[in-house]
Design brief:
Blueprint (H helix, E strand, L loop, with lengths): L3 H15 L6 E4 L12 H8 L4 E7 L2 E6 L7 E5 L4 E6 L9 E6 L4 E6 L5 E5 L23 H9 L5 H5 L10 H11 L12 H20 L41 E5 L2 E5 L11
Helix pairs in contact: 1-6, 3-6, 5-6
């Protein structure tokens, strides 16, 4: 699933290409992506037509386009899911194989493409600044509202493993499996170390590493393992070439040369160096 850097790349692309555009038409080609709009696909299309896109915003992995008024207007919410893409095309461009929703704009089209259809679009009434549907999501490390001291204090009170805490979107948003593993490798901390068993300096080091690795990934267009991870122009990021832990099972650690190890974690995988990130001792 796309994480903060990948979603920010999409947000920035939409900001460049569709800000100020009037939505002249909406075509819902498959009902599933607008399933959250209970009035149905036709009502969704009608509600979105003749609306102006005035801001492109993001918190963590969540993306939305403010409509009509950047402060008090509604918002088009976008959840990319596992394979969702927001693409900007010229009118008349060949439709993508998994094109689901098409928005006609002033001189281009905005398209929602989703192969697996776990993502979706919605309308948040009055959600231009922060959609109420995601108000419970914590600020992410790239936001001005992010308070690392508060996050560290909450982590310090928890007996959960530090990787699980990094993935808790109500505590710190935007971090997923890839960047959690990379941050923990950089900080030299094993993902199963409990928050309350780490020192505040160690926790701050983890937060700083997560922030740094996501900023670097953002500068390289995000991490792309297949053609599903693209920006609004359909281009892939290349931060996967800079990964030290995630997906590197069996390869030598870039610090000490020990083979990177993979273990099961929450129906996913964790990658770490067993020397640089020693596992916690059993109590």
């Amino acid at each position: 699933m796309p994480e903060l850097p990948e979603v920010e790349v999409v947000r920035a692309g939409l900001e460049r290409h569709v800000l100020g555009s009037l939505i002249s038409s909406v075509e819902v080609l498959h009902p599933r992506p607008v399933r959250s709009y209970v009035a149905g696909p036709d009502a969704f299309a009608s509600a979105m037509t003749s609306r102006s896109i005035v801001a492109a915003r993001r918190r963590g992995k969540y993306l939305w386009l403010a409509l009509d008024d950047p402060e008090s207007g509604d918002a088009l919410t976008v959840h990319l899911g596992m394979s969702g893409q927001m693409l900007v095309q010229l009118p008349g461009a060949d439709p993508e194989r998994h094109l689901r929703v098409r928005f006609g704009l002033d001189a281009r089209e905005m398209r929602f493409v989703d192969q697996r259809m776990f993502g979706g679009l919605g309308i948040s009434v009055g959600g231009a600044t922060i959609p109420p549907e995601i108000a419970h999501i914590a600020p992410d490390p790239l936001e001005a509202a992010f308070d690392p001291d508060l996050v560290v204090a909450r982590m310090k009170r928890s007996a959960s493993g530090i990787k699980r805490l990094l993935l808790t979107q109500t505590l710190i948003s935007g971090v997923g499996n890839i960047y959690a593993d990379e941050a923990l490798w950089r900080a030299g901390v094993h993902g199963e170390r409990a928050g309350n068993r780490l020192t505040k300096p160690q926790l701050h080091r983890v937060i700083e590493a997560a922030t740094a690795v996501m900023r670097e990934a953002l500068g390289q267009g995000g991490t792309s393992f297949d053609a599903l991870y693209v920006n609004v122009n359909g281009e892939s990021g290349y931060f996967d070439r800079s990964l030290h832990a995630y997906g590197q099972e069996g390869r030598p650690c870039d610090r000490c040369g020990t083979p990177i190890r993979r273990v099961q974690f929450m129906n996913r995988s964790s990658y770490f160096c067993p020397v640089c990130q020693p596992a916690p001792r059993a109590r």
